[in-house]
Automatic annotation (TrEMBL):
InterPro entries per record: Carb_Metab_HTH_regulators, DeoR-like_C, DeoR_HTH, NagB/RpiA_transferase-like, WH_DNA-bd_sf
HTH deoR-type domain span: 3-58
Coiled-coil ranges (or none): none
Keywords: Repressor, Transcription, Transcription regulation
PANTHER family: GLYCEROL-3-PHOSPHATE REGULON REPRESSOR (PTHR30363:SF4), HTH-TYPE TRANSCRIPTIONAL REGULATOR SRLR-RELATED (PTHR30363)
Stated name of the protein: DeoR family transcriptional regulator
One GO MF term: DNA-binding transcription factor activity
Lineage: Bacteria, Pseudomonadati, Pseudomonadota, Alphaproteobacteria, Hyphomicrobiales
Amino acid sequence: MSQTFRLDDLMRIAREEGRIVAEEAAARMGVTVQTIRRDLLKLSDAGKLTRVHGGAVLPSGTANIGYDDRRSLHSDEKANIAAACAAAIPDNAAIFMNIGTTTEAVARALLGHSKLLVVTNNINVANILVANPDCEIVLAGGLLRRTDGGLVGTLANRIVEQFKFDLAVIGCSAIDDDGDLLDFDIMEVGVSQTAIARSRKTFLVADHSKFSRTAPARIASLADINTFFTDRSLTPELSASCKRWNTEIAVSRTEKPAG
């Protein structure tokens, strides 16, 4: 395989998985680890990746990747996370759901629920739940962010403040090593923080790729979460912290086809 094709494949792996492990990439591509390390160095020099021990990650930044791209990444994992989250949500519940492709997956998993009240600042979530005739939908009006259908800003905050939720279902863009939940837009963060403060319980839905990313704005901590629905086990250190915080971890693994 030529270096040009390898570099393209490495960037695809980085975007889909959030991290490149040099030994695993070498095995996939049938080349030596040293070859992959040289490739990663070239991508790092070009500013496309950041080198870390054993491989590379996407560089830290202040801008998220495109919403359509995010929707297509880890779709099976998101569906499993959403199914587990929806199974923990009772009928007759008042719920807040924020902006994100995983919360959209939760909305699809709630189409069979009855007597729900869902408040959301995510137009996509509202459009999905329209198909559930037994779900009352309230859009938290605000400044429309055309890139992802999000409604953000002071007006959205004020609407969310009018409710007391049984549950907030929250997504995030990144999770730091110390358990902080991070996002890219401070106005979006404000709406999520308001919803958490107005909820009896908070569920976090996020796949494993969020652990290898970073973002500048803090939403909350895993200490503020009742149940974290994800698809891979946390590090021993973060697992110990969650146990100390009484944050339940629910891991839903994607089944691989036989053969």
